[in-house]
């Protein structure tokens, strides 16, 4: 049974509309002023809200503004009721996020038609996200085995060498093989972690508590965090001399752990797809709103088609087999930036220059 919250200060309209909706099989909860309605919306999370505009305590505009700014209620369908029919009132409601607008007096058919239209729209949206989640599962099930295949083959092959030839091996050869097995194992571990993180970011998008938590996160000592992460990656590629760092400190709206993920994915791509001896620049700047991290390399670059599609992981499925996770890494970075109110910009001239810019809001930005 769908739950509808009705907020209306006219007792006759409140009573008659409640009975009308109950007769249609809806569960109706009601409030006779904006403040009480707002509290009920937060406590009960209804399927749809019908709200008068002119009310005591808090008017309808104040109600919808508060609901749209709360992650747990921001997507609830919202229909305004009003005795006014002025175009400016209608426009103001829509700009605040109203889904529909009914002028009093309204008929039973008008009200039920507006409600049914919103529920149908929600069904389409829910169906879309279910399909997207199914696509994600399908892509992971197809791509993950391929990503793990090559390091798994290396582990098995090297282990086979140890088992069959240990008696004829030189003492110094055993540690070398052990290091190669350890590296292949780490590669598999990192790839699994990357897939799991991507799946987590996709599946928790509608988790209001989680969204609210990341919006309240703050990273400090940003210059130290970014520089440390970039240096570790350069060391992994034995290219410390190729790394150039010029990072400003700031307080930005993201957790230290997620900031590290973004830096790791972007800087790792820059080293992975550029040649030893070419410079990788990791610099930053900021204005009064955003902190911008800029990674520049002079490697193989990214094709225009990839740049256009990097927000959707499935577009990279075939490329992943060859490029070892480039698309997934970029998708993870973009997803994290989007969730924190930032953005990712890429400019690339293949085999000449690639510039990746990650924008994140400064902490306390309004």
Indicate the topology.
Layout lengths: L2 E5 L3 H13 L3 E5 L2 H11 L3 E5 L7 H9 L9 E5 L4 H9 L4 E4 L4 H58 L7 H31 L4 H8 L6 H15 L6 E4 L9 H17 L7 E7 L3 E8 L6 H6 L7 H7 L2 H14 L3 E7 L3 E9 L5
Parallel strand pairs: 1-2, 1-3, 3-4, 4-5, 6-7
Antiparallel strand pairs: 7-8, 8-10, 9-10
Helix content class:
40-55%
- Which segments are poorly predicted (pLDDT under 50) over 5 or more consecutive residues? 312-326
The helix count comes to: 12
How do the helices and strands follow one another from N- to C-terminus?
EHEHEHEHEHHHHEHEEHHHEE
Radius of gyration: 27 Å
Question: What number is the mean pLDDT?
Answer: 82
Instruction: Please state roughly what percent of the residues sit in beta strands, choosing from under 5%, 5-15%, 15-25%, 25-35%, 35-45% or over 45%.
Output: 15-25%
The end-to-end distance, rounded to whole angstroms, is: 39 Å
Derived from helix and strand composition plus strand pairing, the structural class reads: alpha/beta
Characterize the main sheet. Answer: 5 strands, parallel
Please give a structural write-up.
The protein has helices at residues 11-23, 34-44, 60-68, 87-95, 108-165, 173-203, 208-215, 222-236, 256-272, 304-309, 317-323, 326-339; strands at 3-7, 27-31, 48-52, 78-82, 100-103, 243-246, 280-286, 290-297, 343-349, 353-361. By secondary structure, it is an alpha/beta fold. The strands form 2 sheets. The protein has a 5-stranded parallel beta sheet, sandwiched between helices. A 5-stranded mixed beta sheet has the order 6-7-8-10-9, with helices on one face. Helix 5 (108-165) packs antiparallel against helix 6, helix 8 (222-236) packs parallel to helix 9 and helix 9 (256-272) runs antiparallel to helix 12 (326-339). The model is unreliable at 312-326 (pLDDT under 50).
């Amino acid at each position: 049974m769908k739950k509808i919250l009705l907020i209306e200060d006219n007792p006759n309209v409140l009573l008659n509309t409640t009975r009308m909706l109950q007769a249609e099989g809806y569960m109706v909860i009601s409030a006779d002023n904006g403040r009480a309605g707002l509290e009920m919306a937060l406590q009960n999370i209804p399927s749809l809200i019908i709200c008068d505009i002119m009310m005591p305590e808090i008017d309808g505009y104040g109600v919808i503004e508060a609901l749209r700014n709360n992650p747990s209620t921001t997507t609830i369908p919202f229909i305004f009721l009003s005795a006014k029919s002025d175009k400016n009132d209608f426009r103001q409601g829509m700009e605040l996020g109203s889904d529909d607008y009914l002028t009093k007096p309204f008929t039973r058919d008008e009200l039920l038609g507006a409600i049914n239209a919103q529920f149908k729209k929600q069904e389409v949206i829910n169906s879309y996200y279910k399909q997207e989640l199914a696509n994600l599962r399908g892509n992971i099930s197809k791509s993950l085995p391929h990503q793990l295949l090559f390091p798994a083959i290396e582990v098995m092959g090297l282990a086979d060498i140890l088992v069959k030839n240990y008696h004829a091996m030189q003492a110094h050869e055993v540690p070398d093989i052990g290091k190669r097995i350890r590296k292949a194992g780490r590669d598999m571990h990192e790839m699994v972690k990357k897939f799991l993180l991507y799946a987590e970011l996709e599946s928790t998008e509608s988790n209001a508590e989680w969204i609210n938590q990341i919006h309240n996160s703050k990273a400090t000592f940003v210059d130290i965090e970014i520089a440390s992460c970039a240096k570790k990656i350069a060391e992994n590629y034995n290219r410390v001399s190729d790394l150039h760092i010029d990072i400003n400190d700031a307080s930005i709206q993201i957790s230290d752990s997620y900031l590290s993920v973004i830096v790791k994915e972007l800087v790792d791509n820059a080293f992975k797809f550029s040649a030893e001896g070419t410079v990788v620049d990791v610099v930053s700047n900021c204005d009064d709103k955003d902190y911008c991290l800029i990674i520049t390399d002079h490697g193989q670059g990214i094709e225009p088609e990839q740049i256009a599609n990097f927000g959707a992981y499935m577009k990279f499925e075939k490329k992943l087999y060859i490029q070892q996770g480039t698309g997934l890494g970029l998708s993870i970075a973009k997803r994290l930036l989007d969730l924190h109110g930032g953005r990712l910009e890429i400019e690339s001239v293949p085999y000449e220059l690639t510039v990746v810019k990650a924008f994140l809001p400064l902490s306390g930005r309004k």
